[in-house]
Predict the 3D structure of the following.
Amino acid sequence: MTETRLDVLCIGNAIVDIIADCDDAFLEREGLTKGMMRLIDAEEAVRLYDHMGPAREVSGGSAGNTAAGIAALGARAGFIGQVAPDQLGEFYRHDLTATGVEFTTPATDFGVPTARSMILVTPDAHRTMNTFLGAAQLLPASALDAAQIEGAATLYLEGYLWDPETPRYAMVKAIDIARRAGRKVAFTLSDTFCIDRHRGGFNQLLDDGRLDILFANEAEIKMLAGTDDFEAAMAATQGRVQTLVVTRSELGAIAVQDGARAEVPAEPVCKVVDTTGAGDLFAAGFLAGQAQGRSLEDSLVMGAVAAAEVISHYGARPETDLKALVARRLG
Amino acid sequence: MTETRLDVLCIGNAIVDIIADCDDAFLEREGLTKGMMRLIDAEEAVRLYDHMGPAREVSGGSAGNTAAGIAALGARAGFIGQVAPDQLGEFYRHDLTATGVEFTTPATDFGVPTARSMILVTPDAHRTMNTFLGAAQLLPASALDAAQIEGAATLYLEGYLWDPETPRYAMVKAIDIARRAGRKVAFTLSDTFCIDRHRGGFNQLLDDGRLDILFANEAEIKMLAGTDDFEAAMAATQGRVQTLVVTRSELGAIAVQDGARAEVPAEPVCKVVDTTGAGDLFAAGFLAGQAQGRSLEDSLVMGAVAAAEVISHYGARPETDLKALVARRLG
């Protein structure tokens, strides 16, 4: 196998987060289910934005957050995603590049703007996402750089990208290129509603042996396995993938790798402000740990440290020196 | 005098803040003076942005922040400022409107984008602002709505707007309209470099009796008066304006109104994160207090409470319920 240029290459929806506070009554009035991600069209995006409070805009997108976290932890990260040639697209590129992520997918004018997700944060720190996919859903397979994929030790994909057809096709092609080059493929299940829409496709990826690492939270692994029993869901899934990583919020996280199981508690957080990006940064910490040759348990600790940082403030990208936090925790 | 529709109508640069952390070495490398605001052109904006770390985008602009604070405190606020018909302009309008501020100045395509200020925050929470004025510097006098100005009890203007010629002319015209209608005119000195550029013009406004309320911080009042002695600067200025409000960071604030003097200490803050907007929100609290018929001292306390909130997080707009904070403090 040839040398790698990147540790992890992430493919995902290139989305700017527009984050506002709201109360539970607002979610109810708008008919929104707390904690979920829903896709909305341009018209609904305008309508909801009109109702929303003043907001912060921060670059986001699940796999983009993971790429930013990996780079912040000192590993080599790349990102593939589609932005439009507009101000949001410029922000998106700047923020990733400034974090040290290789992001070379060109901006393309498809006549739709860069994606944005209106994220409503309730006082309990839970986030409810309303995503207008715009240009992100038009990532063409032709935008993939085969040499870049072949040069990345791990290809990382977000389940959300399975929703629109065009990037799903690009993702399947990317998996093929990675596998042929003998690289690992990692996948995150993203969201229970997303699994509900694509359970067949996700299970097929596992059964075809096309995934090496699977990330999920407790609700997602249960949804995928079709059971309400957590340990039964773990048992049903862990044999179908080399590495299974499952996060359980304040209960910590579990990984099963080649039959060995490791478990860590959640890292303490002074005040949970906004849980957006918790799973994305957990994946970042775990993947950076694995890239750095750390043990399964230490990789989980790195995930927990990165997740704890990101939920302590608004926005899904790290705002503190993650390397220093990990060094303090693991030495 | 006819009834008022607004308590305070603010005119200012409509600017989106792009906020990133940096260290002192970065400021030095870029040749920037900590704590200052400088105006930059499009080329320098691109160059500096390329060097900056990942950022948050939040609506800002001095008078816009003040308008948002006034509305958040339950008083009736309006804003006049120029945005372009682009994504930043849409954010700007949304954020002000969602706070309850009347903002009807139409977006206009002058071929330049909406203004943005790249704000670099050092670990000591001080901010250094690099402002590309874009559309903001093209606010034409024709965009003023005379009836709106006549219907506002107080017209509030930012010194920054004195820099570009076009909005300076609009501002002078707005002062005329307000004075003819018997309304009060308030002015903030904004920045010592700004005073250095316009000391003559600012002193002329005072000497012509065109200002009723003047806001400054300690450095600014000294700069305007041309003395390093704080009390001498107060003495030289307080007779030239009905109400003089001077903030002194952690030393609190002083107001002199019709010869009576009030003084309050700074409100305690757990952790100062980003001082951007401290003066803007102090002005908001003071003006809202005056609009609500509160005493000079209680108006100062409201200023201190609003300023303390805004320096406890990134961004220059309130993120907590200011009305509740004031109610807790003043009952």
